[in-house]
Each structure stands twice: as C-alpha cells, then as structure tokens.
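ok so i was messing around last nite and threw this chain in just to see what happens. nothing serious, just curious
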Amino acid sequence: MIYQVPQHINKDKIFIINRSEIEGRLEPVYYRPSIALLERKIRSLSTKKLRNYAFSIAGGATPKKTEAEKYYSNSENGVPFLRVQNLQTTGDLSLDGCLYINKETHSGLLKRSQVAEGDLLIKITGVGRMAIASVAPKKFIGNTNQHMVVVKTGNTDTSKYLAQYLNLDIIEKIASRHSTGGTRPALDYPSLKSLPIIEGLNFSTSVFITIEQPKLIRNIRV
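result:
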C-alpha cells in the first residue's frame, strides 16, 4: 500500500517525492510542490534561457578597505563601484550611496567586471530578494563587486526587457529556488544562465502567470 499524506495536512509543508524526482538537491524547500509546479509551468511557456542573450557574464571583487588609498577614490575623480543596494526592482540603476574606485583599479584589478551603457546587472548573492536586475544608463562607465554579475547582451532594449522580466515576483521565486548556501544564498552561473525566459511580455500592463492556467499576471501567491 502506498502511503498518502492525509487530506487535512498542508501539502506544501508536508509532502512526498519519489526517489526518481531527486535532482541532486536535498533541501526540502527545493521540492515544495507549489514552487516545483510553478517552475514547470514557466518552463513550458518559455522559448529561451538567459544564456541565449548573454555574450558574456562576469563578476567582480571588492578591493580591500584596509588599503583604501590604493583602490578607492571620490565621485569627482573615480569610477562608480556598484553594490547590491544600487540595484532596483524598477530596472533602473541607483547611484545613491555609491562608492568609487580609482581609474587604475577599474582598468587593472577589476578590468573583467567593467560596466558600460546597456549592460544588465543581476544580483547573485546575499540575503533577501535574489536576481534583482538593473540596466546601466546612457554613457555609464562603472564597475561592480562579487555580489552581482555584468551580463553583456549587446542591446540596451534586450537588457531592459530582461531586467523587467527578472524582477517579476514569479521569476524571483524560481531564481531563489535554485540558489544555495543557507544563510548566505548564492545563485551560481549555471543556474543563472538556465533561468527560463518568456519572450514578448507587455510590461505596461499587469503580468501574471498562474499555476492553474497560462495567463500572464504580475504577482503570484503560492
């Protein structure tokens, strides 16, 4: 006889999965039925993954604060050094409280993570919301630390679409599902690049995706 979870129990808190369904992850939250079903629905509607839009993906580093005179500068002479708090769910980049590194650090130690106009910036580590995304504005020149990545899409409009898409609550749930690390969650590159992308959404209206039907809406509760 196959055991069944009693009907009165919340099946999103107590559930059974088959051994064949285990994907290498052992955290129970990863297999929560509502989020697993949600991801299957999104992937059934998607035509591409994030990797299909990325010519390159690179992360930065944080120069030592103990050697501030060697790496850091001011707003007049330095280059903006972006941190997670500079990303916004609106897709716009905020420079409030921005740090600045000197040009030597920007073109030397952090050459790999340089940020330019139209680049897509995505949060990949830290507590709170995962995969917050923003786009570098016109004529922007900057750099970033290791808690986000710079995605070169080659097209500003593409970056803006992806930022709005990744900032949807429903997509954030999928990104968070694939993060690891417990109290310091992180979304690794393979997981980031495999995020499903649904093309052609109109963000000027509310956008939803329900589990029950493939209707597009903005905020989902699961």
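not much to say yet. The chain has six helices and ten strands.
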